[in-house]
Amino acid sequence: MDKIQDTIDLLKIYNQEHIIKLLEKLDDEKKRALIDQISKIDFHQIKELYDNTKKEIEIKENKIEPLPYLDKEKLSEEQKEEFQRLGEEVIEKGEYAVVTMAGGQGTRLGHSGPKGTFKLDVYGKGKYLFEILAENLKEANQKYGKYGKIIPWYIMTSKENNDETIEFMEKHNYFGYDKDSVRFFAQSELPIVDVNGKLLVDKDMKIKEASDGNGGTYSSLRASGALAEMKEKGIKWVFIGGVDNALLKMADTILLGVAINKNVQIASKSVVKANAHERVGVFGKMNGHPKVIEYSEMPDKMAEEVDENGELKYGEAHIMCNLYTIEAIEKISKETLIYHSAFKKNSYIDENGKEVIPTEPNSFKFESFIFDAFELFDDIAILRGKREDDFAPVKNKEGVDSPKTAKELYEKFWNRN
């Protein structure tokens, strides 16, 4: 009884009386489940995030400078060999792990299911995105597994797609990857609020939540126990990438070697922007720290600036190909990254128990971005790759970054190699 009263008092403090009305209508089992969910919500945090949606974003005076990078194409044979040797040693010793962010659904692709279960129409019979990644890792194990070590593969799902993802991987026998070396963990979530800061209720009579953005990967690694497991295994370097890049190199020994050589805790691969106004985040230094600067934050004049070689000064696009020391992941996982709000359409159950399906955006979801963590460090190593070798994203149903463009890039790459 006390728990119910405590919950009611808490909901009153945060002006969530519509949830109290809902609690009165629920049977004991549903009531218990909702109270249990409410007890885990940080209402103060949600109120702060909602209040921030009403504030004008202040553009502070930021000192932005370009970040130095190494161009993979322009490395000498000696440099390549040295970086490769350093990288290979780490993988051979079993000190390297890979994380795949696979929490999304393939909605934008017109695919009903986890994005990793989308089949890319390559070479006639097609390959699933998870299959492409599994092949990539199997190849790395063959190349660098002289001591029999297998790269541990951590797959981040969402509450929404976790069971379906595991079922899919089981059904396909992990595409020949060692099942004991694969571990799933779920991304954390945050409640969705309407324009008045009221929590939305879902059809299952629970508070509607959504994944908290790819920046939640770090804290989810810690909360799930995956980070502790990595440390037990003696992992020293962790690669984090998305599920939707058909040319992603998850074990790039040169990128790893560059990071070791430069003695940094974080590293990333870039590709050159297609043009000054391509809508991608680019690497730069802001107030002395590495940062990915969103295209919306960069003035046109700066975006168009070129260096003495006629190349864009801010031309290194972030392609979600990031590498960290285990210490860096641990450090970030304890920090609260900045949250961004997205104004979206979300259906909900009103206080009379009726489902409302909006035609316009009606609510805020809150998410952090993986690259916001870069600012916690003084330096980062950037290795410039090539679009045709490293970047074939599968994001939109048609047009740019679609299955059609990814298929072409994938087939061209493998016909060359």
Task: Name some characteristics of this structure.
20% strand, 3-stranded antiparallel beta sheet, 417 residues, 8-stranded mixed beta sheet, alpha/beta, Spore Coat Polysaccharide Biosynthesis Protein SpsA, Chain A
List the helices and strands and how they pair.
Elements: H1 2-13, H2 17-25, H3 28-39, H4 43-52, E1 64-65, E2 70-71, H5 77-92, E3 96-101, E4 119-120, E5 127-128, H6 129-144, E6 153-157, H7 162-171, E7 182-186, E8 189-191, E9 193-194, E10 209-211, H8 217-223, H9 226-232, E11 237-242, H10 253-262, E12 266-272, E13 282-286, E14 289-293, H11 300-304, E15 316-325, H12 326-333, E16 340-344, E17 348-349, E18 355-356, E19 363-367, E20 381-384, H13 387-390, H14 403-416
Parallel strand pairs: 2-20, 3-6, 3-11, 6-7, 12-20
Antiparallel strand pairs: 1-13, 4-5, 8-10, 9-19, 11-15, 12-15, 13-14, 16-19, 17-18
Helix pairs in contact: 5-10, 8-12
